[in-house]
Design a protein that fits this description.
The protein is an alpha/beta fold. Helices cover about 45% and strands about 10% of the residues. The protein contains 27 helices and 20 strands. Helix 15 links the parallel strand 14 and strand 15. The chain is globular and about 90 Å long. The two termini are about 45 Å apart. Bound molecules: 3-hydroxybutanoyl-coenzyme A. 3-hydroxybutanoyl-coenzyme A (3HC) binds near residues 127 and 128.
Length: about 700
């Protein structure tokens, strides 16, 4: 055995050179790994006793791609292209032996080998699109040559990996390995070396570049299919253009197109934001200051109090991963309705082919109903998901205190109320935590985990791990009204209301936010949530535009009218009634209406969010700026290609943000615009969040 360097080894076994990469956690193609592979290949080629070469990885996975953490620094030789060229031009046959995930540059490495064999559970993908990129090491030119144009387009635009069976069917791998991948790979390449002759190179394969469906039709179809989902993103279209180059140009010309478009994306703001977000998301799961030895509790059974839209959605998360869950409602009718809605949701998913019918039954069977909290005595985690009323929540928690087993975690799904006050209703505040799911709870990825003053480390650690288990992205936050997400959102809504009052049509405000990349604007979102949320019908006195709309029965989408009018398909149309009402309200409150530019709307809606984020950081409510960005991307549809509010502020420049806040403060005389001390001091030091 020869250590090529501290990441790569070279073993010569039975006339085969085995190059093994051992660079945890995911064998990414860091400089040391690239250097090791390159030297390993050259040593194998120079050794006359070697007939063939195996490239494999130790640890949990085959190469998971280029090392993203190196993207910001100057590239160092040997570049990935140099290594791939060496593999592609090898005079001895090479096989990639793949387990785990061959992703991005990892799959591109495998595509430069003559052969690929893989374990049955291996996965293969080009996920660069998720980083705002395209595969820049030949992936867009080689993949269609081996799996065909349609499949390649689907893989590069979705970034989703395919499994080993699919890979075998499409020709991406030559052989499915048995238990011993390494031994199988050595045998395989020895046989190939013994047969001799030319060994196939993916670049030479032209056959799969055409099919019975004309390529133009395939490209047009894909563009149409992904248009809505990829609105605002550059990378999907660039990926498509590379595959177009693969079918219309010779290989080397196609490589040039790929290289040019890759560099354009790599140097652009979108990819920077998406790379930043890749690490932000992973960082969010880490909690500083919790001792490694802190015990994690077992969660084998869950209780949910409230079977409405929220409670039902929460329960589905548990059933989806095989955890039994009991829903408690106050009466049989509500319980039946809740369980019925869950079944309908699953059946809808099954009817779209995204769930097997037998899974509908398995999941529904995991969800039971009860009419009393006594039924939750054996639950490890109990989540209260009733409406936002402190007295009701306190009553529930005092009853849970009596019923729940001593080790149970008692969680509230409150989106704004004081968790510490709720915890005081129990004799065990250390067991109380906030688990704030976002609606629809079975779909939205974000989980705000709210740490009370007395919540124990063990409960926090357990909930962070549990979030991962139910496939949520968790961020740990502290207690304050609205926590991180809703507290910041309030700032946007406040300014959206004001600019509308000052004369910007509701549809203009929403269009500005939609064009920025949000899935919908502030007023459409308010209509969706229901304008009567938190509205006090009995004491309503026409104080705000929203009050007046509710008084007219315009409560949002559910009443087919709110800030907009809605048709039966819930499509919004601007309402003259609302425009008149807002103008009238402006007059009554002494506000002079004027034309407002899109830029002013954008600044006034977005910059207060940044300022509030800075205050949240100052107060220690969020652990890091990147956690706020994770909350916004996963909970509120902030476009990931803008990284989140704090990354967006960094990209604008913090002194620019401070200058604009101060300008509005001066213009309006309103201390709402006062920049937070943290923001000011970072701006003065030329720093960033
Ligand atoms: N570069 C650097 N670090 C990486 C990495 C990469 N490509 N992929 C994963 N990591 C790190 C993560 O940051 C994390 O670090 P941490 O423990 O310090 O937080 C650690 O590896 C483990 O990652 P996950 O927590 O994501 O582990 P999972 O087991 O859940 O997932 C994975 C493993 C499926 C490999 C997932 O990490 C992943 O999807 N990675 C990214 C793959 C990718 O995007 N590859 C393409 C890169 S771009 C490229 O190759 C360009 C080329 O075309 C030229």
């Amino acid at each position: 055995m020869v250590a090529v360097n501290n990441k790569v080894r070279l073993d010569i076994e039975q006339g085969v050179a085995v190059i093994s990469i051992d660079s945890p956690p995911v064998n990414a193609l860091s400089h040391a790994v690239r250097e090791g592979i390159y030297n390993g290949v050259n040593q194998a080629l120079a050794d006359d006793s070697v007939g063939g070469i195996v490239v494999l990885c130790e640890g949990r996975t085959f190469i998971a791609g280029a090392d993203i953490s190196e993207f910001g620094s100057a590239p160092k030789e040997p570049h990935l292209h140099t290594i791939l060229e060496a593999l592609d031009q090898s005079t001895k046959p090479v096989v990639a032996a793949i387990h785990g995930t061959a992703l991005g540059g990892g799959l591109e490495t495998a595509l430069c080998c003559n052969y690929r064999i893989a374990s049955a559970n291996a996965k293969f993908g080009l996920p660069e699109v998720h980083l705002g990129l395209l595969p820049g090491a030949g992936g867009t030119q080689r993949l269609p040559r081996i799996v065909g144009v349609e499949k390649a387009l689907s893989m590069v635009t979705s970034g989703a990996p395919i499994g080993a069976e699919d890979a075998l069917k499409t020709g991406l791998i030559d052989l499915m390995a048995g238990e011993d991948l390494r031994a199988n790979a050595i045998d395989f390449i020895r046989d190939k070396a013994a047969i001799g002759g030319d060994h196939p190179r993916v670049r030479d394969n032209q056959e799969k570049l055409s099919s019975s469906v004309p390529n133009e039709e395939i490209f047009a179809g894909v563009r149409k299919m992904i248009a809505r989902k990829t609105r605002g993103f550059l990378a999907p279209e660039y990926n498509i253009q590379c595959i177009e180059a693969a079918v219309s140009k010779p290989f080397d010309e196609g490589m040039k197109t790929e290289g040019k478009l890759f560099m354009e994306l790599m140097s652009g703001a979108q990819s920077k934001a998406q790379q930043y977000f890749f690490f932000a998301e992973r960082q969010a799961s880490k909690v500083d200051g919790i001792d490694k030895t802190t015990p994690e509790l077992q969660i084998a059974k869950v209780g949910v109090i409230g079977g409405g839209l929220m409670g039902g959605g929460i329960a589905m998360n548990m059933a989806n991963v095989g955890i039994p869950v009991t829903i408690v409602e106050t009466n049989q009718t509500a319980l039946d309705r809740g369980l019925g809605t869950i079944r309908k949701n699953y059946e809808n998913t099954a009817s779209k082919g995204r769930l097997r019918l037998e899974d509908v039954e398995t999941r529904c069977n995991l969800i039971n109903g009860a009419l009393d909290v006594d039924a939750l005595a054996d639950c490890d985690l109990i989540i209260e998901a009733v409406f936002e009323n402190m007295a009701v929540k306190k009553d529930i928690f005092s009853r849970l205190d009596v019923v729940a087993k001593p080790t149970a975690i008692l969680a509230s799904n409150t989106s704004a109320l004081d968790l510490n006050e709720i915890a005081q209703a129990t004799s065990r505040p250390e067991s109380v935590i906030g688990l704030h799911f976002f609606s629809p709870a079975n779909v939205m990825k974000l989980l705000e985990i709210v740490r009370g003053d007395k919540t124990s480390d063990s409960v926090i650690k357990t909930c962070m791990a549990f979030a991962k288990k139910i496939k949520k992205v968790a961020t740990l936050v502290g207690v304050c009204p609205g926590f991180v997400g809703n507290r910041i959102l309030f700032m946007r809504q406040h300014q959206a209301n004001l600019v509308a009052l000052e004369g910007a049509p509701v549809s203009q405000v929403d269009k500005v936010l939609f064009d920025f990349g949000f899935p919908m604007g502030a007023f459409q979102m308010a209509d969706l949530a229901g304008l009567d949320l938190g509205w006090d019908k009995d004491n309503s006195n026409s104080e705000t535009v929203k009050d007046r709309l509710c008084e007219m029965g315009r409560c949002g989408q559910k009443t087919r009218s709110g800030f907009y009018d809605y048709d039966d398909s819930r499509r919004p149309a601007p309402s003259a009634v609302v425009a008149d009402l807002i103008a009238d309200h402006a007059q009554k409150t002494g506000v002079i209406q004027r034309q407002i530019s899109d830029q002013e709307i954008l600044d006034r809606c977005i910059l207060p969010m940044v300022n509030e984020g800075a205050k949240i950081l100052e107060e220690g409510i969020a652990m890091r700026a990147s956690d706020i960005d994770v909350v916004y991307v996963y909970g509120y549809g902030w476009p990931i290609y803008r990284g989140g509010p704090m990354h967006y502020a960094n990209s604008l420049g913090l002194s620019e943000v401070v200058a604009k806040l101060r300008a509005y403060q001066q213009q309006t005389g309103d201390d709402f615009w006062e920049p937070s001390p943290l923001l000011v001091s970072l701006a003065e030091q030329g720093g960033q969040f």
